[in-house]
Amino acid sequence: MKKQFKKSLVSLFVLGCSATLLSACNKTPNFDGMSGSELLIALHEQMLKDHTTYIKYTDFQKYCVGSNKLYSIDRKSESDKSLVGFYTGKLQSGYSGFTREHVWACANSSGLWVHGNNKPVDTKYNVDNSAYKGGGSDLYHIRPCTSAINTKRGSAKLYVFPATAVKDSTYYEHTDGGPYIIKTDTDGDYANKFEPANENKGDMARILMYVYTHYSSIGDNSEVDEEVRGYLGALNLRDVFNSGYSLKEVQDIIVEWNELDPPDETEKLRNDTVEKIQGNRNPFVDHPEYIKKIFQEEE
Q1: How many domains does the chain have?
Q2: In percent, how much of the chain has pLDDT > 90?
Q3: Can you tell me the distance from the alpha carbon of 68 to that of 261, in angstroms, rounded to the nearest whole number?
């Protein structure tokens, strides 16, 4: 995701990854010899091993306001406290008017998590909504969004619009990075469909693959803490995208978005920052090439 960022802060991050501090960055182990389900399972097990602190959904704001580092990352610069909305790339002063939001709708997550007025997926532990943890409250998955845009997006599914659709303003709103939301015509051909801005597509792809990999019930989870096992499920990638796409088409879109918008310094800094809170990294930021390898058929 491209956005303006104070040069000194980025320089500090780059310096932190140089020379003697190189071991503190890009911690995801090298699984370059793997592909397909073998790579998927290896990353899943590594993520569960590293993830030591699961955040409550309602606690997210405390990691984003004041002097917290996540708040600093989502700001335009150290001196300008305007937050950059994930979908729009637009600035808004302070935290007022923003909400913490999943980058795709909860309703399209195959029942992997629920929140708000619903009961948590894992009712066995009698955990109330304010204490719900798991994929729906993971700091990698939640970004700042203006409340109005979040409401307008609603439960719209991911979609790649044809070029002709962009010309019709009744369907689209725009940013410099391209189209980002579609919800204005509830009866039209493009109703309930959503395409992120070009500058956010890589972020979207890597967050989606993070949740798909981390919170899957694949592999041997017998040694995983029982409560953590309750967070696992099966995210169907087709549920996140428009129903007209086949699984292969969805996979191709994810690969394309990942390659269109590679990780920038801001996304890498977020990876380091969230790791300090949760203990784990998003391996697809460290190794974006793993996304294509997972979808490759094993030879």
Answers
A1: 1
A2: 27
A3: 26
